[in-house]
């Protein structure tokens, strides 16, 4: 087809040299169309041959190998680690390991801890009468090993493999010390259940140096007739007060201890009980509104 069109064009040009320019332009356009068709046919044939050669090649790439290399790419691995899939949050939480709580013995590198609380002579008889009430919370609640040493007249406590709380030994020692200071067992047990309770002690002479009858009257003003003043301060400030000769022991929270201590100091300095009662009423009113 290409050879025949070339011959026709040559013949036409030789036989009619005097044709007008319009005829010449038409024949040139036909030649260009013929050349484009021939080039297209040649390119198509070449592409088909190349595709056949590629398909028959022995080095054909395996899609599975390509995908495995993509998955092993370090850039993709870091991206997956940085961006966790939101849908697998529950499964990841379920796969997290759970460990048992360390016992007091394990937390202290398997070393047994001891505490010893001495019993004063005037508290020996109350201790013997309330021994069962003291022993029950120490053993059942704190899981401590407790005994009373009759030779040294002291309560001895130590941790065991069953003790879970690392602060159980200190709580038990505070409980026994509060009982030895003169508090009731029911009041001292609050030290085991609450963490913000404290015991404070001071002497009457720490507030003001008094001697003889002046000291006795100061102690009488703190206690009151039949203990009325002491009970009023306890109920107003929600604390517990023990008056043991010249020493005064307080049990309660930090803020309540401060209010009770200020009231007792005013009584020691010589304030009349009526004035202290009025201040305790206002304090009790504020605390009731607060809680």
Characteristic terms for this protein:
16 helices; 291 residues; mainly alpha; three-stranded antiparallel sheet
Structure description:
This protein has 291 residues and is mainly α. Helix content is 60%, strand content 11%. The chain has helices at 2-15, 21-55, 63-71, 74-82, 89-95, 104-107, 124-129, 131-141, 168-181, 185-188, 190-193, 204-207, 213-223, 228-237, 254-268, 273-290; strands at 114-118, 145-149, 154-158, 198-203, 240-244, 247-252. A three-stranded antiparallel sheet has the order 1-3-2, covered by helices on one side. Helix 1 (2-15) packs antiparallel against helix 2 (21-55) and helix 14 runs parallel beside helix 16. The longest helix has 35 residues, at 21-55. The radius of gyration is 51 Å and the shape is globular. Mean pLDDT is 76; it is low at 1-20 and 47-57.
SSE layout and pairing:
Blueprint: H1 2-15, H2 21-55, H3 63-71, H4 74-82, H5 89-95, H6 104-107, E1 114-118, H7 124-129, H8 131-141, E2 145-149, E3 154-158, H9 168-181, H10 185-188, H11 190-193, E4 198-203, H12 204-207, H13 213-223, H14 228-237, E5 240-244, E6 247-252, H15 254-268, H16 273-290
Antiparallel strand pairs: 1-3, 2-3, 4-6, 5-6
Helix pairs in contact: 1-2, 14-16, 15-16
The ordered string of helix (H) and strand (E) elements is HHHHHHEHHEEHHHEHHHEEHH
Compute the number of strand runs.
6
Radius of gyration: 51 Å
Given the helix and strand composition, which structural class is it? mainly alpha
Ranges where pLDDT stays below 50 over 5 or more residues in a row are: 1-20, 47-57
Percent of residues in helical segments? 55-70%
Helix segment tally = 16
Q: Which of globular, elongated, flat, extended, rod-shaped describes the shape?
A: globular
Major sheet: order of its strands? 1-3-2
Query: What is the first-to-last residue Cα distance?
Result: 110 Å
Q: DSSP strand (E) fraction?
A: 5-15%
């Amino acid at each position: 087809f290409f050879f025949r069109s070339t011959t026709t064009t040559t013949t036409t040009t030789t036989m009619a040299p005097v044709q007008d320019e319009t005829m010449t332009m038409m024949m040139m356009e036909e030649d260009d169309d013929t050349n484009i068709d021939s080039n297209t046919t040649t390119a198509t044939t070449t592409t088909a041959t190349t595709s056949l050669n590629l398909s028959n090649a022995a080095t054909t790439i395996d899609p599975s190998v390509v995908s495995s290399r993509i998955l092993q790419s370090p850039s993709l691995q870091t991206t997956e680690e940085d961006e966790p899939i939101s849908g697998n949050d529950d499964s990841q939480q379920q796969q997290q390991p759970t460990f048992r709580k360390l016992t007091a013995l394990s937390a202290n590198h398997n070393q047994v801890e001891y505490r010893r609380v001495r019993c004063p002579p005037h508290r020996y008889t109350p201790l013997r009468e309330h021994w069962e009430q003291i022993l029950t919370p120490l053993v059942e609640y704190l899981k401590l090993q407790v005994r009373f040493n009759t030779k040294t007249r002291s309560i001895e406590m130590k941790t065991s493999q069953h003790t879970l709380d690392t602060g159980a030994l200190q709580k038990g020692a505070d409980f026994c010390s509060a009982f030895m200071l003169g508090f009731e067992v029911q009041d001292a047990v609050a030290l085991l259940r609450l963490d913000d309770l404290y015991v404070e002690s001071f002497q009457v002479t720490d507030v003001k140096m008094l001697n003889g009858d002046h000291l006795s009257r100061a102690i009488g003003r703190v206690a009151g007739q039949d203990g009325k003043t002491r009970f009023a301060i306890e109920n107003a400030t929600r604390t517990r007060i023990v008056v043991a000769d010249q020493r005064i022991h307080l049990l309660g929270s930090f803020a309540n201890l401060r209010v009770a201590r200020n009231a007792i100091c005013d009584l020691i300095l010589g304030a009349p009980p009526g004035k202290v009662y009025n201040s305790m009423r206002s304090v009790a009113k504020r605390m009731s509104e607060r809680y």
